[in-house]
Write a sequence for this structure.
């Protein structure tokens, strides 16, 4: 069992590392085409990574070991998340299951690491970005926890793989109102967690509106490469989780070469669709003012809370 | 109708009722709230239809038609025409508690509704009774909107949400109320809405705006 | 006999439609008077029938007349007649408009339907209809204050009545799950189905809460002073005199249904709280009043609080005293409100700080007001004295000694406040130096019909002493409510 789980984890890591930059490139391309631009092509993130890794890493004056350790912690936590969440299959380690709380905590470690990198240089923009980032993170965590918890109530366990497996077994539960409410809340939370519109604009060049970009202003070279890849991996993993919960078909319940191939194809399709949808919707949205973000996140929390209470109230025959 | 389909449809209508009520509290634009009210009326009519089909009662289906006409067509139509006469799309200028606090209050009210509905669960085990807390929650949400909004139209919308909640409880617990009473209650509701609209228009022409905080001359 | 049950409602509906017909013209202003007279005659006929042992029904059993309904119908008719006849204005007055008379006729018809209905759902519809009918009557003057009062009234009354509907719905659900789905209390009384106590507890609490809002009991009373002070005087008389009592009648009916199922404890607790709070609110705010009509509105809150305490006590003595109080209060309050309207017309204000020495300057208007106030203060020989004493005694007998003690203290405080304001208006000296008014002769004109006021106040004075069939109807009505608990 553990060997299978290790193989699956490795496969997931490899898949996500290769797919995430493509995902981001595709989303940028979709957005560009919708906006009437030619775009840089879907392979541009890969080209950016190659360029950054080749460049010299500069440290700003006054920074400490945090600026070196932070990006490393982020990339490690993102790889762990990719390994743990049930993206290709639902086989897990028996001793370290991909429990909801474990996954959320690992995500949070990465969040905090980036925030510390932003603070380390002692610049105004970095501090501003870090404080906004942590505010949003504090508001998003309860929603993520409660919405996935709502999905776990019918299953009886908060292990993500078991939730996905249960949804695979019972297709009717995918369309139930509890599930729809919870996934709606989770979608809003994912948008906030990964720094997409309307919470944060990833393409902005105006420092005063930045959240994520402000924290990485002082990084360069290899550090910046890890920071960028880390955030792309988080985006890919969370979109993969969301789409797997919404459409669990294609997931491999046991390990086999054919199953893994099928699951990989399904995963590519799912995150392509979700990513394209997200990019398309972003074209029509404007970034929310900062003090209206708590309203949005409180609303998504209420939806998740309602999903929890509804799953206790409405008896499923 | 099969049991699981029945339970799912009841759950779906209940979910839409609840979601529309949450969005009414969340949104600030009054014309959006009126549209959501129409959606809520449609969900209530759908719920009554499901109950009617399940029990094979033509009376319930007639009542469903009545609810549909009243709460989806007539009342939102009246309200949107009144809002249009009032002026460009209205926003709630300063509600008494801000949106985030209202949304948190919604979560607390949902828990309260669940607690209050405990004695009602003795009525039976079927999915309809299990969905009664949704009706009680709607009543409480209506109260919240009534109590925390300043604009006359917002209070009217809160009153209609309250009435929808009472209707939901009525249909879920007892398959509705006797037809005569149902007709009388619908007529009364229509007349109350008309009266409040006329009063709003008069308040607006007298005070210059329908902000109810201006109505403070009568006090001890 | 069933005809007399249908007659008041049908007649009022016809009148409401007919007042808009142009040919009636000047006769239009008598519409309210005629409607009240018909209601009173029907009520008396039904009282005679009930004392004879009959129980007239009509419209296939939807209208059912027992002792309580017949008595309440008589109250509606007599108070209505006092208010509408006493409130008749000269030909060019505002009440000549068709809409006003139509609304008054609808109001009276709805109240008649409420007391005659056998089905608690129809009772609810009728009470909501009274809110609708009075909405534009309260806001009739279209001033800023009356618009504010009308808005508060409609919103609060409708919300309260909506809560009562929730209670009624749950009651219906309880009857349905017990096997006999019905909202008719004659059927509930006859069958006595095994209703689930916890469900009925919630239902009764909600229904009483809702109807208490309409009856003006604290803490849901905030609409009452505004609405009753801003409405035209006859309408205030009708609302204070009889609409509050009809809402109280609804509370009594709910109590009678729920009592055998859940016992008296919950409802007694609710009614004692509401009653004492109402008395406290009236006691605290009466002394601060600067407007006669608002003062009378707070006096209504006081009397409704007293009625709530009587309902909490229960038993034959308390309930029959409460019904006597309903009649006495209705007649006295409507007379006083009508005269306050005349004071407004002659003095131009109803402010207690500006009017002084009314008894010497306008005895024709001041004398009925003084007599009405003496009745409302609960002084003998008026029936309110006897009913208040009986309620206190009944309360002590039924174990509410401390409650009644607090109530008596609060009533004394209210007595002091009302007396102070009345004396100031009647006997005070004008503080401004007389400029040439000393030579003005006393205005002995009554400024309106004096017969209805004399009859109303006279009846209030005499019924306290009347025995025989009158007390029989009261005890019969109390027995209907299951006063043998």
């Amino acid at each position: 069992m553990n060997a299978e789980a290790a193989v699956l984890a490795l496969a997931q890591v490899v898949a996500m590392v290769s797919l995430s930059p493509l995902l981001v490139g595709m989303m940028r391309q979709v957005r560009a085409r919708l906006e009437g631009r030619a775009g840089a092509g879907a392979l541009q993130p890969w080209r950016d990574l190659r360029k950054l890794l080749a460049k010299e890493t500069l440290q700003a004056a006054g920074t400490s070991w945090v600026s070196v350790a932070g990006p490393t912690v982020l990339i490690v936590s993102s790889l762990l998340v990719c390994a743990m969440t049930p993206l290709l299959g639902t086989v897990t380690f028996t001793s370290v299951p991909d429990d909801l709380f474990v996954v959320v905590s690992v995500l949070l470690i990465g969040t905090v690491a980036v925030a510390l990198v932003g603070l380390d240089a002692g610049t105004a923009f970095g501090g501003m970005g870090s404080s906004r980032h942590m505010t949003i993170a504090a508001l998003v965590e309860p929603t993520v926890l409660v919405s996935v918890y709502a999905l776990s109530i019918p299953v009886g366990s908060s292990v993500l793989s078991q939730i996905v497996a249960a949804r695979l077994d019972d297709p009717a539960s995918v369309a139930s109102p509890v599930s729809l409410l919870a996934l709606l809340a989770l979608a809003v939370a994912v948008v906030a967690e990964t720094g997409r519109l309307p919470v944060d604009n990833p393409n902005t060049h105006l420092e005063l509106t930045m959240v994520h970009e402000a924290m990485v202003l002082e990084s360069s070279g290899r550090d910046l490469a890890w920071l960028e890849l880390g955030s792309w991996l988080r985006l890919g993993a969370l979109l993969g989780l969301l789409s797997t919960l919404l459409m669990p078909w294609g997931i491999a319940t046991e390990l086999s070469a054919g199953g893994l191939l099928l699951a990989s194809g399904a995963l590519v399709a799912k995150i392509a669709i979700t990513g394209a949808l997200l990019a398309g919707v972003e074209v029509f949205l404007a970034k929310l003012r900062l003090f209206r973000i708590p309203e949005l996140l409180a609303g998504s929390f209420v939806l998740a809370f309602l999903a929890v209470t509804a799953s206790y109230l409405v008896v499923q025959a | 109708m099969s049991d699981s389909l029945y339970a799912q449809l009841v759950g779906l209508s209940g979910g839409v009722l609840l979601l529309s009520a949450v969005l009414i509290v969340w949104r600030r634009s009054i014309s959006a709230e009126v549209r959501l009210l129409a959606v809520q009326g449609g969900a209530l009519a759908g719920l009554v239809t499901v109950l009617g089909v399940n029990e094979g009662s033509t009376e319930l289906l007639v009542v469903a038609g009545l609810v549909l006409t009243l709460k989806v067509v007539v009342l939102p139509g009246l309200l949107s025409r009144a809002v249009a006469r009032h002026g460009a799309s209205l926003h709630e200028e300063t509600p008494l508690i801000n949106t985030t606090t209202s949304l948190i209050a919604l979560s607390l009210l949902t828990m309260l509704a669940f607690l209050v509905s405990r004695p009602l669960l003795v009525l039976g085990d079927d999915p309809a009774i299990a969905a009664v807390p949704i009706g009680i929650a709607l009543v409480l949400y209506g109260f919240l909107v009534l109590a925390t909004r300043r604009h006359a139209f917002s209070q009217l919308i809160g009153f209609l949400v309250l009435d929808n909640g009472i209707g939901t409880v009525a249909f879920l617990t007892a398959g509705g109320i006797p037809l005569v009473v149902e007709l009388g209650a619908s007529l009364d509701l229509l007349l109350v809405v008309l009266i409040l609209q006329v009063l709003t228009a008069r308040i607006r022409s007298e005070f210059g705006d329908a902000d109810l905080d201006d109505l403070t001359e009568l006090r001890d | 006999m069933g005809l007399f049950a249908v007659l008041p409602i049908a007649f009022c509906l016809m009148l409401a439609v007919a007042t808009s017909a142009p040919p009636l013209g000047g006769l239009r202003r008598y519409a309210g008077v005629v409607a009240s007279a018909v209601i009173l005659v029907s009520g008396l006929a039904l009282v005679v029938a009930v004392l004879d042992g009959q129980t007239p029904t009509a419209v296939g059993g939807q209208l059912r007349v027992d002792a309580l309904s017949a008595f309440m119908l008589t109250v509606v008719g007599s108070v209505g007649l006092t208010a509408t006849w006493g409130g008749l204005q000269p030909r060019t007055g505002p009440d000549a408009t068709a809409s006003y008379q139509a609304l008054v006729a609808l109001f009276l018809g709805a109240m008649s339907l409420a007391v005659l209905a056998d089905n608690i759902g129809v009772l609810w519809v009728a009470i909501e209809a009274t809110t609708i009918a009075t909405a534009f009557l309260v806001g009739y003057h279209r001033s800023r204050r009356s618009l504010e009062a009308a808005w508060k009234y409609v919103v609060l009354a409708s919300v309260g009545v909506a809560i009562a509907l929730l209670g009624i719905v749950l009651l219906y659900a309880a009857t349905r799950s017990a096997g006999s789905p019905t909202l008719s209390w004659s059927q509930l009384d006859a069958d006595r189905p095994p209703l689930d106590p916890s469900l009925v507890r919630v239902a009764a609490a909600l229904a009483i809460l809702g109807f208490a809002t309409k009856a003006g009991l604290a803490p849901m009373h905030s609409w009452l002073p505004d609405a009753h002070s801003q409405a035209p005087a006859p309408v205030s008389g009708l609302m204070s005199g009889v609409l509050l009592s009809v809402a109280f009648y609804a509370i009594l009916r709910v109590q009678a249904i729920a009592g055998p199922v859940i016992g008296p404890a919950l409802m007694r607790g609710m009614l004692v709280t509401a009653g004492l709070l109402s008395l406290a609110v009236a006691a605290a705010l009466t002394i601060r009043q600067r407007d006669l009509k608002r003062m009378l509105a707070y006096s209504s809150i006081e009397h409704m609080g007293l009625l709530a305490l009587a309902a909490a006590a229960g038993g034959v003595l308390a309930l029959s005293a409460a019904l006597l109080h309903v009649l006495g209060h209705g007649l006295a309050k409507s007379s006083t409100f009508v005269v306050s309207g005349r004071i407004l017309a002659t003095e131009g204000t109803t402010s207690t700080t500006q009017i002084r020495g009314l008894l010497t300057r306008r005895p024709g208007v001041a004398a009925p007001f003084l007599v009405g106030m003496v009745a409302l203060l609960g002084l003998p020989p008026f029936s309110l004295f006897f009913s208040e004493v009986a309620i206190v005694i009944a309360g002590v007998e039924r174990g509410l000694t401390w409650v009644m003690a607090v109530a008596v203290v609060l009533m004394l405080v209210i007595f002091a406040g009302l007396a102070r304001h009345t004396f100031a208006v009647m006997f005070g000296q004008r503080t401004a130096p007389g400029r040439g008014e000393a030579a003005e002769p006393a205005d002995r004109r009554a400024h309106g019909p004096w017969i209805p006021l004399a009859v109303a106040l006279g009846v209030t004075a005499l019924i306290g002493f009347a025995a025989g069939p009158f007390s029989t109807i009261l005890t019969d009505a109390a027995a209907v409510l299951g006063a043998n608990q």
